[in-house]
Amino acid sequence: MRTLIIDCIEKIGETVEISGFIQTRRDHGKIVFLDVSDRSGMIQVVITGEKAEDVHSQDVVSITGKVQKRPENLVNKNISTGEIELSAEKLEVLSKAVELPFDMGAKDLDLQLPTLLDFRPLTLRHPKIKQIFKVQAAILEGFRKAATDLDCTEIVVPTIAASSTEGGAEVFKIDYYEHKAFLTQSPQLYKQMLVPVFERVFVVTKAYRAEPSVTTRHLSEITQLDCEIGFIEFPELLDMLEEVAVKTIKFAEEKCEDALKEFGVENVLFGKIPRLSVKEAQDVILKEFDRDNRKEKDLTPQDEIDICKWAREKHSSDFVTITHFPTSAKPFYTKPDPKDPEYSLSYDLLFRGVEVLSGSQRINDHSQLLESLKSRGMDPKNFEMYLQAFKYGMPPEGGFSFGLERLTMHLLKLSNVREASLFPRDMERVDIRLNQK
Amino acid sequence: MRTLIIDCIEKIGETVEISGFIQTRRDHGKIVFLDVSDRSGMIQVVITGEKAEDVHSQDVVSITGKVQKRPENLVNKNISTGEIELSAEKLEVLSKAVELPFDMGAKDLDLQLPTLLDFRPLTLRHPKIKQIFKVQAAILEGFRKAATDLDCTEIVVPTIAASSTEGGAEVFKIDYYEHKAFLTQSPQLYKQMLVPVFERVFVVTKAYRAEPSVTTRHLSEITQLDCEIGFIEFPELLDMLEEVAVKTIKFAEEKCEDALKEFGVENVLFGKIPRLSVKEAQDVILKEFDRDNRKEKDLTPQDEIDICKWAREKHSSDFVTITHFPTSAKPFYTKPDPKDPEYSLSYDLLFRGVEVLSGSQRINDHSQLLESLKSRGMDPKNFEMYLQAFKYGMPPEGGFSFGLERLTMHLLKLSNVREASLFPRDMERVDIRLNQK
Questions:
Q1: If we measure between CA atoms, which residue out of B117, B109, B133 comes closest to residue B57?
Q2: Closest chain B residue to the Cα of A211, Cα to Cα
């Protein structure tokens, strides 16, 4: 009968059987120390050299032994099982690992990105790397909780579409029986169609971008966390997106406190989030940072960093909401500001210097939507089903969208978004490296 | 300030503003009755003909009026707001719907499937159809809860792969930059690679099958609910799959009691689930139904129906677990039964006459896995990264998988799986019908 490692704490003096992976092996003369981990934790095993012959990191073992208190001076305060150890009587190898291509025992796995990805099934086992995806799972859970608090219904939307979602060339083509089809660039059109059905919806789904470049921030396949809300106007929508963002990140931070500490990430500041239009933000940049970018239509990357610095110092907030981007720079469904149609009822949420969420109030009037499509040179015939939703009545509505991998990356301050994807896809790799022609 | 319809129950005598969709309109001389719905419920609105001129089903409206108790003899016990009505003072149209192509007011939307799908953004708004997807959302939530109870970590796996997952020709090809790639047929290989990382994982993800036929049970894009569990042997795995299935369906049944009633579905029977090997099931079929199919390698569709009938009558269970399918009929990663390798440690869970879940104990030994691939004429080179996971140590493990749409279909006894997908994909349709060549 297997005992989970964490439960050994309550079994001092008892004989138990644990199962798990050997993480590290340290030989001290005739005695060997093994760190063994299972899903619940890690324990130090003390074993004679002959019982542990040949076993090494990543071997899968089952060990029977007695749980003992460690001497006071050998207690390890960094792990929850640091006061105990297992004195092994029997060790059985359930699955033997071949020799490892690099050391998995160090606190940080110091590898170049290509190697990290070439050996993904192995490198993901490293305790620190594993934590990244514990945080990612917590972000998912936190987001669903926050969306459910808003009374959103979860929906499942397709990823195969007959035309490209939002225009643009960066779509993947599929051989769809005898026809052409595309992978969706976002769940946007589908979540909007479902507003008249459920009023408020959320979805966790895939989005695909055939970006023909390799950057530290882009993946070909990402996970989007989306909300879409009916019967809403702009200011209330801003309340909601901020609420969902804050709840999601708070949840992950609380659930994964240890992981965030391990990555050396300071606590997120949740002061009231300042809201500024692009123009207002540019005024702050001029006043506080002495750069006059008021002729730019958007914030520069340095502006984004600085406005977040300002928000952190002046508002104790790691977030800033930037609104009113130029209409021409936003997708066709974005609602222009009726007071100044050159600018739109759109927003980005910045988090520690970068955008992690964006969204907008949408055009809900059928004829205005047709106009908007046509003015961008897009053919309404490609949006036949989407447009139906507006023909048959659409309330005022809006929504927003996070990228899961990018949010994970910035919460943990990783340097490349590929580190925040279990199996990242880009133009150079689909698991293994693609042969260059 | 908007009041949700459900909250009107507590506001008798007060003037409120509601917003929602007109569902039905009934003219009685100078008085018009409107059924108006929002995400919280439906209310009857009484209004003069002149104030409600031209408004009809699917118009989006905002109505100000006084909440009144209905006379005793006009109470509608079928809806939670059946004791009240709204006496309208002002009606504002927020979005006008064009004339509808069919009546949306009947209890059942009596349309042929092609029409149901041609007008999907409209037909999904029908109260009964909407319920299907409330049940689907509950299945998702129930599954995640059940998997979390088992201590599974949620993972995100890719849907673009370099080779076809499990062999077979029914895969969709993608133009992936200058290379060829495929849409995954299941998350199988990825979830297995993550067992050494998290030990127990779950995933909700897309799976794609380019099935070149149109049946009532197949879609080209489906949603899979998967678990994969490490450090486990066959009998315990059977306990877990049954636990997850029962918890998932119980959760949906309890959360969506009204919806299941509306679809006329009797309560699910949760008696102890009988477990039979294919051979044992065939013996029951012979004994109880007088059909000798003992020479068949699998149960026939009629066998599945009858064995479920037997389970319901003799075991008060709407489920039956069938085990030990022929090894040759199962994918390469399925573990043969060491006692009789012609048969495998595999299982299907039948629910009310059809399979809704399948899975198996997996081969966790690297060399046995290589043999299995080769014996099926598959090239290990196409599974390079997957095989790494076994080279570096893999515990005994197994898992299982539901199809979300099929489970929704059978729980509600729908006649076609397309009814259980918001936007179904098949060889004839991607939203709109594909032009036949």
A1: B109
A2: B177
